[in-house]
Design goal:
Blueprint: H1 3-23, H2 26-49, H3 57-70, H4 73-96
Helix pairs in contact: 1-2, 1-4, 2-3, 2-4, 3-4
């Protein structure tokens, strides 16, 4: 998938998640936020399986979970979306750099 297509899909996904959060009930907002967190964890685990997990992904997921506990669902969704993006990009980076050879002086 090309990066432009990926970004377009992510934008539509984000808008689809965030828009109902502004107009729905608290239970619906919490459900949407928890779904976003689950998606972030899936992306994080996929990246971690091949050594591509980024440093801050877990911190973003934890902050998202904390925001849910505080009732700040908009923040929770935003943080979870960032974590999911990091998972996706970390996976792609690890795949692209799988056969990268470093010079001896960097090893």
């Amino acid at each position: 998938m090309k990066l432009d297509n990926f970004l377009a899909i992510m934008l539509v996904t984000i808008l689809g998640i965030v828009t109902p959060a502004y107009s729905g009930s608290t239970a619906m907002q919490a459900n949407i936020a928890n779904k976003a967190i689950q998606q972030a964890k899936v992306a994080q685990n996929k990246a971690a399986l091949i050594g591509g997990e980024w440093r801050d992904t877990e911190k973003l997921i934890q902050a998202s979970q904390d925001a849910v506990q505080k009732g700040d669902f908009t923040l929770a969704i935003s943080l979870a979306t960032q974590a999911q993006q990091q998972g996706i990009l970390g996976y792609k980076q690890a795949v692209q750099q799988k056969n990268l050879k470093f010079p001896v002086y960097l090893q």
